[in-house]
Amino acid sequence: MIRGCRSRGGPWREGGRAAGLSALPPEFSVTNFGLGTQSIKKQRVPARPRPNRARIAPKEISVKKTIVLAAVLCFAGLSTWAAPKSQSWTGWISDSKCGAKGANASHASCAKRCIAAGEKPVFVADNGQKVVAIENPGAVSGEIGQHVQITGSLTAGGSLHVDKVKTQ
Question: Which of 11, 56, 61, 69 has the maximum number of C-beta atoms within 10 A of its C-beta?
Fold first, then answer.
């Protein structure tokens, strides 16, 4: 006997509806053709009426524009205030291999050789011998191994963006 046949009480139920199709949304109807086949048709359901939206008064639009403008101006002011400020430091341009050990005039030739070999130039500050990576090494390429005054800003990653270099 065929499994799922109507006479065996398989997936067919009273009234010709399939077991899983009785929970269809109301816009669908199930039709049984009597031979074990079904057809699902979508019925036309009238659209729900849309609620009437009240028109916005011109004064309300003006208030909204003013609030948006104030928010934009606050954002612009805060971003300008938070922008990195240029500062000035004195120190030595050394290489990343030697670091603070290369913060003297006798190290100039070693620093040039190391940077030519692929090491990155770094700035060694006079106060505290702090070693800071240089974000734009092309700006200091002519002053390697020299005592310099650098004007620039510290980036979020802690490296130094050089704006101007002056040999001392």
Answer: 11
pLDDT of 134 over the 90 cut = yes
Pairing of strands 87-95, 38-42: unpaired
Of residues 144, 150, 137, the one with CA closest to residue 109? 144
Cα(119)–Cα(102) distance, integer angstroms: 13
Extract the tokens encoding 19: 């077991």
Determine the residue type at 73. Answer: L
Distance CA 112, CA 129 (A): 20
For residue range 18-73, what is the model confidence (pLDDT) as tens digits? 445 455 555 555 555 555 555 556 666 667 776 666 666 666 678 888 888 899 98
d(CA 147, CA 90): 7
Same domain, 152 and 94: yes
- Whether residue 71 lies inside any domain: the answer is no
Domain span including residue 146: 87-167
The SS3 assignment for 123 reads: strand
Number of domains observed in the structure of the chain: 2
